[in-house]
Amino acid sequence: MEIELGRGKRGRRAYTFDDVAIVPTRRTRNPADVSTSWTIDAFTFETPILGAPMDSVVSPQTAIELGRMGVLGVLDLEGLWTRYEDPEPLLAEIASLPAESATQRMQALYAEPIKPGLISQRIAEIRAAGVVAAGALSPQRTAEHYETVVNAGVDLFVIRGTTVSAEHVSSSEDALNLKQFIYDLDVPVIVGGVGTHKAALHLMRTGAAGVLVGFGGGAASTTRSALGIHTPMATAVADVSAARRDYMDESGGRYVHVIADGGVGTSGDIVKAIAMGADAVMLGVSLARATDAPGGGFHWGQEAHHATLPRGRRVAVDQSSTLEEVLFGPATTADGTTNLMGALRKSMATTGYSDLKEFQRVDVVVSPYE
């Protein structure tokens, strides 16, 4: 439904996760009988969660810990871990910075060049632990570093930006041809973010294994105030899920995974993202809250240290639980920030669904908070 904003402009009504709720049906289940596993390409994970490629969320060690718990941790291959041999003191410094100087100092730290040797070394560390190795580059850096990433043996390659399109136009530089690039690679690619049916359909046609919905950042993002861009996530996930259905018809059955990326801060948001059609969710602030997260009580993304136009900030987060407790409990609060998987299982069981694919069909209502 379009709303008339004025005589010269109309806008479509869109909804966030806070605006919708799921509805129980006639059947319930035991939570122990519910499966939260999902598969992308040749890889199966016990939980539909990806750790966001942010230095405050995923380090090589965190990626290993998450992998052992059935979660895919994605390392930021443009972060401190590929710029410095030992970034631990720098992570601690960022956590100690006063708010008024944090952005400027982070810009200086992230101005250090990316070192291909460190990309290879970090991926090798993760692979050596026997877990799935995933790394992320922005579209601007992909052409420069992808060969290093692939040769290092990455299992899943993520191309993640504020907005990623299959039709980037530039008069000053060679644009990344995603369709040619993805088909030439020997590893599955997850790409995004997108927020519309049309943009998602174009990305699916490139051969991507998964599409990220949203622009990431979430709690640490200021994209809406800086650029005027915002993706109400309930509507966006539903739109991209519809694009997946249309692409399946168009391609003769090829399934592209939909991953909600941004605006997923609590267990209730995870539940509603999957109810709207997501196969998995990418978490930032939810995992940054863990006492063993590398951010040391703070959370930030790439946008926070952009050299010329920061579109994010370093935010303080409350740390009271380990990564394992955040994901699997036991919960010590009732605010949806711990035992994320227990809450998902409970919601699926309460509405009578046994796996994630079934749960995507759950009834939802528009129930906005005033």
TrEMBL record:
It comes from the Bacteria. The keyword Methyltransferase does not apply. The keyword Oxidoreductase applies. SMART domains: IMPDH. Residues 14-297 form the IMP dehydrogenase/GMP reductase domain. One of its GO terms (molecular function) is IMP dehydrogenase activity. Belongs to the IMPDH/GMPR family. This is GuaB3 family IMP dehydrogenase-related protein. It comes from Candidatus Microbacterium stercoravium. The lineage of its organism: Bacteria, Bacillati, Actinomycetota, Actinomycetes, Micrococcales.
